[in-house]
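Risk register update: the risk of archive-format incompatibility is retired. Evidence:
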Amino acid sequence: MTWLDRYLQKRRIREARRELPPGARVLDIGTHDGTLFRLTRARGVGIDPELAAVTSIPGVTLVKGSFPKDMPKLPNESFDAVTALAVVEHVPESELLIWAETIARLVVPSGLLIITVPVPAVDTILHVLMRLNLVAGMAAHQHHRFQLSNLDHIFTAPLWQRAKHRTFQLGLNHLYVFERAPHLQAQNPRLPSPSGQPSRQLSNP
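Archived output:
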């Protein structure tokens, strides 16, 4: 990663950190090198097909592979929150539909899914920055013509409900927070009974 990649990564994590409950068990999809866990002191699992070589992080398992097929076997409701920062725009919509169901099984009732995604104009900026060797991230052509409006169709009832949406970095990036439906047991009998934790109060979208 270049210095600019690292700066942008930390900005995304700072936005996501504001949404994480204290002491959260987190699944970080696209973790790269586990920086989110170091900066938030969360515990959990980070997964990335291009996982960087890093020293171990207490309470954290880092997995080199793709979500969800390379995830270790875990019981349902293993996490309080899932983060996917600058990731979903690289994933085809058909795969994101699988993500929606899989993540819903992995988080507790009223657990959170925190997503950041750039606006389409960032593709042009990215091309320029890559030519200048200022960023070394995924190429814009891997964005699969992602549309922001798709998120509300993919992460929707009965599995999910949108809790928050805001922009940051001068409107170039969006942050979405989706909450797993607390009544999901009635909709999906494959999930165990809810843990009894009260639903968190979140601001309206």
